[in-house]
Amino acid sequence: MVKNTPGKPSAPKAATVRGVLPSLGAVFAELVLVCVLVALVPVTVYLDTAVWGEGVTEDSLTEHLHNTLLAIAAGIFVLGAYQNIAMRGYLALAATLFACMFLREYDAALDRIRHGFWLYPALATLAVGTFVAWRNRGTTLLPMLHHLQTRSATFVYIGVVLLLFFSRTFGTSTLWEAVMGAAYDPQIKTTVQEGTELLAYLLIAYGAVLSHLHGFGAQAALQERRL
Predict the structure, then answer these.
(1) What is the spatial distance between Cα 189 and Cα 172, in angstroms, rounded to a whole number?
(2) Rounded CA gap, 174 and 79, in Å?
């Protein structure tokens, strides 16, 4: 049984808790922020369809936000890979993934050069990113696991799942043909899919910003070394 030394106060648990847990105000502020970000999806789709009347096309606000949010996420992970040598392998791979996704999403603009031209810069990006990750392969697995422990990575994780799996299945023509029957309109299917993708990109970008602010899980690694 541990006894307190006379004249020395025991460890201040309240101070420790305040140092680990966010304040109620911070929690509420983030809740409001996330609600605003989620609300941007229907607002953006409404602007594209009801206000400007163009629908969700390759040149719509929805698509431009796709590109912008992916560029933000890719840029943040590139910056992280540059600044954090101990996590460079993992962050380089994450940056490569989002950069390639950006180039694929930006294919309409790149098609003005040549149809399917996006593939060439994407392959070049993949080659560079893979090379950097391989050169720093000792900083890949553990940094990834440390980052995935954080709540900021959860936003990125859920965003990727929504993007690569949910939006693709929920936005299939077969599903919406069954739902709408003879009234099937492919524009509705496209709007639903692109809106879901916008939500996914918002979560990815938000999680990337939080990840940068929280050091990509560096605190989790520090706590592990203390154990």
Answers:
(1) 7
(2) 41
178 exposure class (CB count in 10 Å sphere: 0-12, 13-18, 19+) = exposed
Any idea which residue has 């509420």 for tokens? 28
Closest CA to 92 of 77, 102, 104, 103: 77
Percentages helix, strand, coil for the chain (3-state, rounded to 5) are 80, 0, 20
* Residue 113 CB partners (closer than 8 Å, separation 6+): none
Tokens 């390639």, located at residue: 100
**Residue 98, both tokens:** 């989002």
Backbone angles phi, psi at 179, to 5 degrees: -70, -45
What is the rounded radius of gyration, in angstroms, for the C-alpha atoms of the chain? 22
Q: What is the pTM of this model?
A: 0.85
Per-residue pLDDT of the chain (227 residues; tens, 9 = 90+): 445 545 444 444 444 334 467 788 888 999 999 999 999 999 999 999 988 877 888 888 999 999 999 999 999 999 999 999 999 999 999 999 999 999 988 888 887 888 888 899 999 999 999 999 999 999 999 999 999 999 999 999 999 999 999 998 998 889 999 999 888 888 888 899 999 999 999 999 999 999 999 999 876 555 555 44
Distance CA 140, CA 94 (A): 10
For residues 122 and 100, is the Cβ–Cβ distance under 8 A? yes
- Give the list of residues 6+ apart from residue 173 with CB closer than 8 angstroms, or none: 186, 189
Which residue's entry shows tokens 């369809």? 49
- Residue of 210, 222, 194 lying closest to 33 (CA atoms): 210
